[in-house]
Amino acid sequence: MDDLLTTAEKIRSMEIRGAGRIAVAASAALRNYALTLGSLDIEEFNIKIEEAAKVLVNTRPTAVSLPNAVMLTKKHTSLTVPEAIDEIVASSDRFIKNATEALGKIGRIGAERIRDGDVILTHCNSHAALSIIKTAFDQGKRISVIATESRPRRQGFITIKELSDHGIPTTLIVDSAVRLTMKEVDLVVVGADSISVNGALINKIGTSQLALAAQEARKNVIVAAETYKFSPRTLLGEMVEIEDRSADEVIDPKLLKEMPNVKVKNPGFDVTPAEYIDLIITEVGAFPPAMAFAIIRDYLGIELDHH
After folding, report:
1. Which residue would you say has higher pLDDT here, 1 or 189?
2. What backbone phi and psi angles, to 5 degrees, belong to 206?
3. What's CA 24's distance to the chain center, in Å?
4. What is the pLDDT of residues 14-34, one digit of tens each?
5. What gap in Å lies between CA 189 and CA 232, rounded to an integer?
6. Is 268 annotated as a binding residue?
7. Which of these is catalytic: 118, 175, 193, 278?
8. Which residue in 221, 181, 219, 217 sits closest to 201, CA to CA?
9. Is 17 annotated in some ligand binding site?
10. CA–CA separation, 89 vs 130, rounded Å?
């Protein structure tokens, strides 16, 4: 359990960050934990696995990739512990393989939407979005990228480093310059933390105003998202919980103490309505947001319950 708790803490503290990496780390942690439970009977085994699953899922409430990865990993129908462990190991290995291969597939499908000479605007640091951009560049398309800082944690700095290392001409802008800059942009490509059944996108704070500016300027918005970013729980009417993060990310706590009448709100994510999104690129194809339900039904294969 110690290793699993270490992984959970790394996810909570954002040492492991990015929805895809979180999902893979959680699946691997649950698999490795299951391998240590061989001496238990099946009832005890199932209780321990459920407890471990809860620990992982509770670390980051908004990244739906986390509960999806955990659900897909822990699900088994075995009546003996050795068989249950084998099933969990196989499920985890399959999930991690599919998650790894998904980025390449998204890159190839999404690159079809990028034309030679395009200026692409991206936000935060999305491995799926960057896969599309890098693939288009590798195909010989002369593209350039405008990347936002993505305050308060400035994940945009990771993005510009990755793009620069790949040889792609990149411009960094502050988040509040998005509307002014939109006239220079041909296409917006962003990632996803979660996609609800109605096709709405939950992503890094600032995504919705970027999409609004793109709508106003008649620029297409493409979302890059593995199928495990879709949220089955929204079928039952649940809202995706928006994570509120620490004020320390925004302001020095000492300064805040000197201002008793000031509080800080630091939501990590926002919701972009489906009507602002032109296309969602997944590893199984490009879909309009209205097809979110079909993706949840056909590709996640998660049985919904009311717990």
Report:
1. 189
2. 105, -15
3. 11
4. 899 888 889 999 999 999 999
5. 24
6. no
7. 193
8. 221
9. yes
10. 30
Residue 16 structure tokens: 């492991």
106-300 is classed CATH 3.40.50.10470:
yes
Total-model pTM: 0.89
CATH topology assigned to domain 2-102: Four Helix Bundle (Hemerythrin (Met), subunit A) (1.20.120)
pLDDT tier for residue 302 given thresholds of 50, 70 and 90: low
Extents of the domains making up the chain? 2-102, 106-300
Q: Is 203 annotated as a binding residue?
A: yes
Pairing of strands 194-195, 285-287: unpaired
Helix (H, G, I), strand (E, B) or coil at 171: strand
- The continuous run of DSSP H or E covering 269 comes out as strand 269-272
46 pLDDT more than 70:
yes
Determine whether the annotation assigns residue 107 to a binding site.
no
> Annotated catalytic residue: which of 118, 124, 175, 278?
124
Q: Which long-range contacts (CB under 8 A, 24 or more apart) does 150-158 make?
A: 150/123, 150/124, 150/125, 150/175, 150/204, 150/206, 151/175, 151/206, 152/249, 152/250, 152/266, 153/14, 153/249, 155/17, 155/124, 155/125, 155/204, 156/123, 156/124, 156/125, 158/125
**193 part of the active site:** yes
Tokens of 52: 């471990």
Q: How far apart are CA 37 and CA 87, in angstroms?
A: 14
Residue 107 in tokens: 């890159």
Mean pLDDT of 169-176: 98
Name the residue with tokens 């708790």: 5
Name the H helices within 112-184: 127-138, 156-165, 178-181
Strands of 46-143 (E only): list them: 119-122
Quick: pLDDT tens for 210-243: 999 999 999 999 999 999 999 988 877 777 788 8
